[in-house]
Structures are given as C-alpha cells and as structure tokens.
Amino acid sequence: MFSETPPIAPIAPAYRLRILTDEQLDRFKAATFEILERTGVLVPSERALKIYAEHGADVDFENQIVRLSSDVILGALAKAPRHYTMGGRTRAFDLDLSKPVTYEATDGTGTKTIDYVTRELRASIKDDVAKSARVADYLSAISFYWPMVSAQDHPQAPSLHELDAAFNNTLKHVQTPTVVEEATARYAIEMARVISGTEEAMRAHPPLSLLICTIAPLAQDEGAMDAALTAAEAGIPVGFMAMPNTGSTAPATIAGTVAVGDAEIVSALVLIQMAFPGAPVYHSFMPGMTHPRTGAYYGHEARVYAMGVELAHMWGVPTLAGTFGGPAQSVGWESGLGGDLASFLSALCGGEMGSGMGLLDGSTLLHPEALVLDAELYHSVRVNAAELDTSADQLALDVIHTVGPRGHYLRERHTRDYFHKMEFSEVLHVPDVDGSYREPVEMARRQTDWILDNHHPEPLSDSQKAELTRILEAAENELS
Amino acid sequence: MSDADYFERLARTVLDGDEEEAESVAKAAVADGLDALECINRGLTEGMNRVGELFASGDYFLPELIMGADAMKAALAVLEPALLDTQQREVLGRVVLGTVEGDVHDIGKTLVGTLLTADGFEVTDIGFDQPASEFVAAVKETNADLVGASALLTTTMRVQAQIIEELKAAGLRDSVKVMVGGAPTAQAWADSIGADGHAVDAIGAVALARLLVDAPPSPEYDD
After folding, report:
1. If you ran DSSP here, which 8-state letter would residue B82 be given?
2. pLDDT tens-digit series, residues A230-239
3. Are strands A297-299 and A288-290 parallel, antiparallel or unpaired?
4. Which residue among A411, A431, A433 places its CB closest to the CB of B67?
5. Does B67 lie at the interface with A, CB-CB under 8 angstroms?
6. Mind listing the domains of chain B with CATH numbers?
7. Which domains occur in chain A, in start order?
C-alpha cells in the first residue's frame, strides 16, 4: 500500500515589486556585454570551445578563452525558451514555468546528517536521500526535490545513487546539482527516460533537470559543461548557477558581484543555445559574501537573490533563485533568518523557481527538523503573497450586523465554517494542555517522525526499479 | 420513533450546534413521554461528550464547543422543567462567574461559562464590571462552590484580591474556591493573592474547576 502525495502549493503572488530599475538593468546588461567581449571566460572544454567558435565567438584555443560580442550573445539567447514545463512523475506534479507562480525546492547537496533516528552526527548516506525525499514528497511547500545530501556510501557513482533514491521516493520533479561529468549525465538521462517511459514523454515532461555551477570568477568547468551539453541534447533542462563570493571571487561590491556572476551564467546559456537552439535553460544567481576576517562565505541580504530573478528575465529565461539556506549550525533564531524574506522578494519579483529549504551549516548539514521548519516559513510567505478575497461572504456584513456591538463571533455558523477553511499550522501555535503553545521545533520533530512512519509515496513499477538498478550497475562498472 | 432514536437525535443537535432543532426534538421527546433525565444523560450529555472528543482530536474548534453548548442549553430549557420531583440533573458544582469592576472584557469569561455549563457545572454569570461585593452576594445567594473572577487589565486585576478579602470578611472563604484568569494574570499572581487556582484559557478553566471540586478530569479536554 502507498499513500497519496499531497498536492504542491506554489506561491502565487497577487502583487509584484521591482528591485532594479530599467536603467540599473541596462547597466548590468552592458557590464555583461563588456566583460564577455573584453575579458571573456575560461572554457577548458574542447567540445565547448569548438561550438563557441562555430557560432561566431572569438575563441583563443591556446588559452581556452572565449570572448562573445553582444550580437552573438543576443542572437543565441533569442533562441532560448522563456517558458517550458518540468515534469513530475505524474502530470499533477509538473511545474509549468509559464504560470505566474514560484515553485520551491529543498536544498542540496550536503555531506553531513544528523540521523533521523539516533540523532548521531555522521557522514551522509543514500538512505538519508531516500528519507528526505519522502519527507519532501509529503510537504506541499516542496514543489520539486534536490537530493539533499550526498550518497557517500556509494563512492563509485554517488550522484546517480542520489537520483535513484530520489526517483524511488518522490513523485516530484528532481533537480540535481551533482551530475557534473559527461558520463554521469548520460546515465542520469537514461534514468530519467525510465521514469518517463519514452523519449517523447521525457522531452515533453522531463522529470529531471541539471544545475551546473560556473566557476568564479569567469570560468566554466570542463566536465560540467560537457554534462550540460549532453543533458541539453536530450531535452533535459539545464541551469547555470553563479556563486561569486563578494570580496574574494568577485569585487567587494554588490554590483560588481552581480556583474561577474551574470557574465558567467550568460556565457554558459549562450553555449547551450548555440549547440541546441531552443533547449530549455535557466539562470541562477546565488552569490555569497566573504567574511573579511576568516575568508569563509555566508549569505547576502535577501534582495541580492531576488535581483537574480530580474537578471534572468532581462535575458529572457526562467530563474532559480536562492531562497533558504544559511550558516546556522543548529535550528534556532539564526536558522530562521532571511530565507523567508529571500523567498518573498523572489516570488514578488516573479521568480519561477527557488531552492534552499532544509539544510543548515552553509548547506552542508541535513537536520531532521529543518525541512519542516523551513516549510512553515515558506507557507507564511505563500499566504502573505496571496490574493486577499474580498467577496461578500468574506466581508461577512450579515454576520457583523447580526452580532452587533459588544457581541462575539464564536457562536456564528459563519465563524465555524471559515475556521475550517483556514490553514492552521501543525508546527506553530499548537496549543498545549496548559494553554501555552508547544515548542515549534518539537512539533517539527513530531511531524517529521510522523511522515517517515506513515508516508510512503507510490512506488515505481518493478520493471522501472530493475532498470534503474541495471543503470546503476552499468555506471559503476564504467565509472570505476 | 424509539427512545434510542430520540437520544441520538438530541446528541446530533448538539454535535451540529443546532439550537432550534435541539429545542424542537426536546419538545417532541417530552410530548412522546420520554424520561427527561434520560434524554439529558443519554442524549445531550452524550452529544456534548462527542463534541469534546472531536475538539480534543482537533476536528472541532471553539465555535463547535459553544454552539454545541448553546444547543444543549436550549434543549435543557425544555427538559429540566419536565424532570420528575425525584429527579435532579447531576451537577459537578455551582460556579459564580464574572469580570471584575472597571473591566468590560467579557468574551473570555463568557466562554468559560459556556464550557463549564456544557461540562456539567451550574453557572451563574454576573456579567462584567462587577465589584467584589457582587461576587460575594452571588456566592451567598447560590451557595456556590466556586468563584471565577476574570480581569484583562493590569489596573483591574487587584479586584481579584479584593474578592478574596471580602469572601474572608463574609466568612465564606472556607466554603468556596476561587479561580482567577485573564491575560495579565498568572499562577504566581494567583498564589500571591491566595487564590486556589489560575487558568490561562477556557479549556484550562474547566480542568481547574473539576480539580477544585474533586471531580475526575474531563477526558475530552485532555490531550
């Protein structure tokens, strides 16, 4: 027996905001043009260099530097689709990026886990991915799933084992940031094809997408770019995430950081469109701040991540915004800081996707309660962004007249009915027997335990499971 | 219609919080010659118990508790006059309830009264803005077991202490328990003025009232 996966609840903002003016966006666009035309990016991939060269780029093969004119950039990006659909295992979990909503995902890919049962801190394993995928599958806040931690108990092909655990434990779209070699990408695509059933179905509703990190400043990774090209050829959406660190791998200014990061992303987006015009791509700007004393990185203020949404739309592609995640090492005041604001601003700016829920310690630590706690913050954002219903029944004038001055509304049918229509948290404001409220972290723990005990999403068919296992075995043979 | 059908219908009116239907079914039961005490115990009380269970499980909210209690009250108004001379509805205790002088906040107090009534207490609600002397007079008049004094302001909570002092002066303090409540109050405040207990909300007040009259805990309101 399996349990139904609850419907996803994306953020549907009823109002919008702009952080950057048209003039500021023009300055950033001009900066990206200037950086890519004058300094260029380092691309240590023969395959990529040839594609760039064949499509009008100025390629210095000896030094692996690619320079792009504004005409070449605009010509390539004009072919990128502004909207497309990312598939779930069933159509109910498809993410239609043309809708005016924001879909959000878990964080990934950490390396440490506080065990769900023993509470022991240890290296992450494949079973952690499976368990976290089941929790994510149940939570309506999670529209798509990033493997949250690394399957370190499968060192031959950890990223493919992470996908195996994810596909087996959630019906939601899976996005991976750890498929970063061409060979691994081929196997990941094979796995996606198994989930979809056919090549056509996979292209129409790809159940997998890749996120490829660029290297700051102004470089691409050989294996990752080859993986990106392989995925794009198969119709798998590919996003490029720039993570420049203000003060170390980017200038010590926000604008300078934006300029470096955007140039990296655009150079990669251009490559994909040159090779496979019309391939689904997305832009993701997730910079960090360099601590001036330790050199370690930590998150920027929330608006910086929402700016990435406006940059992506300026280039005519969807975005993946950085929303949650932070340096807190345990759940508490710090772990709740900022993620909701970044999520709120990104949604109001029209972001299509966001990710970052559920990890601590700079996106390295899977903590049992963190995902449920972040999901609570997410729902607060969703409700705050949603349209307010001012229909006659909501205005309740009849009830107001009936109760009159100095009465109360607790004995009105209208109150009874609407209390049952309202959303009440299972984590916040849960009454205790003495009239106080229960500790939210304790309630999150209880909800997490309940999900793990009770929620078992619809399994893959036996033949699909067998196929995934066969692919894993083949991959391990090749990759070892 | 069988007796069992009547009891179930009465219970259902409480579950649905339907005052008019509760009164109507009660009248029909009396007209059909049913035992009024059985109608109360096997119909209304059973219905209220089920409301309490649904509240405890999280399926019902405060409106269902209040509307259920209102339906029960409407049916009791029909059934209690029909009790035989030898019959008496079981009452857990008599409570005088009010909001203290200078304070007009009475929703919380009224909610406490509704839930105490539904739980089997006989409640005399003296209203809001009531001086200590009115609490004492009501205790004398009703031979109350409990006094509940509500205060929502830091400036009016001192009247709760006055009530205790005036109960002492009237020689009633040993025969009546005093419970206090309201946003600014706390157990420490209750202890400092010599009250017998403090509750933070209506559900807590019912549990406290049961404790103070040595009644077993109400299972519906326990987590």
Report:
1. G
2. 999 999 999 9
3. antiparallel
4. A411
5. yes
6. 3-82 (1.10.1240.10), 93-221 (3.40.50.280)
7. 1-387+423-480 (3.20.20.480)
